[in-house]
Amino acid sequence: QVQLVESGGGLVQAGGSLRLSCVASGSIDSINRMGWYRQAPGNQRELVATIITDGTTNYADSVKGRFTISRDNARMTVFLQMNSLKPEDTAVYYCNADITGRYRGAMNYWGKGTLVTVSS
């Protein structure tokens, strides 16, 4: 069974930083794209950043220059370094990944989310 588990959320003041982590576990053959999405109360879930196996990244315009996504392929982990946080960054942050499992083929997986709250 494949799982994604996020950590690193919390409460921070505006201008501060947080680092989110997401670890994949289970019967995994390979992981292609990994990414972070977020959902604020009353809003739809939106893309924050993605990274593929060769390190190519993609960011939402709202976080460019402030957030950095990275990954450790050996540890099956993706990170999101968030700097210069703003109150509008407050949301539940979800890890997402395209994973080929040993027994289930290629599928898309979501973590359960970690809450980031930025106070003004």
Notable traits:
120 residues; seven-stranded mixed sheet
Q: What does this entry look like structurally?
A:
With 120 residues, this protein is mainly beta. The protein has no helices and 11 strands. The chain has strands at 3-7, 10-13, 18-25, 28-39, 46-51, 57-59, 67-72, 77-82, 91-101, 105-110, 114-119. The strands form 2 sheets. Strands 2, 4, 5, 6, 9, 10 and 11 form a 7-stranded mixed beta sheet that branches. It has a 4-stranded antiparallel beta sheet with strand order 1-3-8-7, with no helix packed on it.
Rounded mean pLDDT score: 97
- Morphology call: elongated
> Whole-Å distance between the termini?
40 Å
The share of residues in extended strands comes to over 45%
